[in-house]
TrEMBL record:
Residues 155-314 form the Glycosyl transferase family domain. Keywords: Membrane, Transferase, Transmembrane, Transmembrane helix. It comes from the Bacteria. GO terms for molecular function: glycosyltransferase activity. The lineage of its organism: Bacteria, Candidatus Nealsoniibacteriota. This is Glycosyl transferase family 1 domain-containing protein. The chain crosses the membrane at residues 84-103, 118-138.
């Protein structure tokens, strides 16, 4: 089968979207040919049966020119695929869906956001199936919705014995938009500092243009702990550097509220990190006996600081045992190979 893939960005080094390069590598092994249209193109190295077309955002092209390229590309590629897989951007299903339907193409949408609008609804209506990972996703309510593994490359994200975790080290990796609640983590670590607890918080990520204002607020909030050497802003990291980063830290914290499903938490689990989250999705993922320890109340720095203190105090053998168990969950339920198999299964349905 030949597949057309539409996605935001193809860039093996991108700290947020670099994972999709791995998805394309895995998909290329199971499809005869992949044509990939992306909004923005960076560095990539893909097999010969993958062709990548960019709509030109990396060159600063206007939306009008990008739209022209989109229609030009789907027209020129119309005879080179049997199905279309649109990742994360329902607008492309709305723009191309009628043409794909007229050409007899099956359309599949990946949508995992908490909220949707009329564009999302139209895209789902045009699609044969919509894939999601969070039961709180807007897409989960539809009959044609299919819950999927998150898709973690557990061959790359794993424990590295050579990288010993730094005791009482905390890691945040991700964006800096207000919904990521990094300010809550700063407040929680400030409470730990006032109790005289030794720790270091490593914050990894590069703020986007629309995140600069919030990032500066976070920096100002963290200034005193940064001066003390208890908070470090490490900037952005290439996606391939993330496994080593997880392996250097003791506890991974994700503060996204219920409804989304950040891959970073599962990547950390695959590396046998202890993870701490507020997202209620993880009640279905964590062992029941660990719900209380690994989950904190949303936007509650006091509860977060107490949970951090408890996890820091665990014996090393208890941490190791928990880390192994968390990895087993990811390998069993959210491995990238499992995701690819499920995508292929759905695409083969009549």
């Amino acid at each position: 089968m030949k597949l057309l893939v539409i996605t935001q960005k193809v860039d093996v080094n991108d700290d947020i979207l670099g994972f999709f390069h791995q998805w394309l590598e895995k998909l290329s092994k199971r499809f005869d040919f992949l044509n990939v249209i992306c909004l923005q193109l960076g560095e990539y190295s893909l097999p010969q049966n993958v062709r990548v077309f960019s709509l030109g955002k990396e060159g600063g092209r206007s939306r009008i020119r990008g739209l022209f390229r989109f229609y030009r590309d789907i027209w020129q590629l119309r005879k080179n695929h049997e199905a279309v897989f649109v990742h994360m951007n329902p607008i492309y299903v709305v723009l191309g869906g009628i043409l794909w339907k007229l050409w007899g193409k099956k359309i599949y949408l990946w949508h995992n956001h908490r909220y949707g609008n009329i564009i999302t609804r139209v895209a789902i209506w045009l699609s044969c199936a919509v894939f999601y990972t969070s039961p709180f996703s807007f897409s989960a309510q539809f009959k044609k919705s299919k819950i999927m593994p998150v898709g973690i490359d557990t061959e790359k994200f794993k424990s590295q014995i050579s990288n010993l975790k730094n005791k009482n080290s905390i890691l945040y990796a991700g964006r800096f938009s207000p919904v990521k609640n990094v300010d809550v983590l700063i407040k929680a670590t400030d409470l730990l500092d006032k109790k005289g607890i030794n720790f270091i918080l490593n914050i990894v990520g590069k703020p986007g243009d629309d995140e600069q204002e919030n990032f500066q607020k976070i920096k100002a909030q963290a200034r005193n702990l940064e001066i003390k050497g208890k908070i470090r802003f490490l900037g952005g990291r290439e996606y391939r550097q993330l496994p080593a980063l997880y392996n250097q830290n003791d506890i991974f914290v994700n503060l996204t509220q219920t409804g989304s499903f950040d891959k970073t938490t599962l990547e950390a689990m695959a590396c046998q990190n202890i993870v701490l989250v507020s997202n209620q999705v993880f009640k279905e993922i964590f062992p029941k006996e660990w719900h209380e320890a690994l989950m904190f109340k949303e936007r509650d720095p006091d509860d977060l600081s107490k949970k951090l203190l408890y996890l820091m105090g665990l014996a090393e053998n208890a941490k190791d045992s928990l880390g192994v168990r968390l990895r087993e969950i990811v390998v069993k339920n959210h491995d990238l190979n499992n995701l690819v198999e499920k995508i292929i299964h759905e695409l083969n349905q009549k």
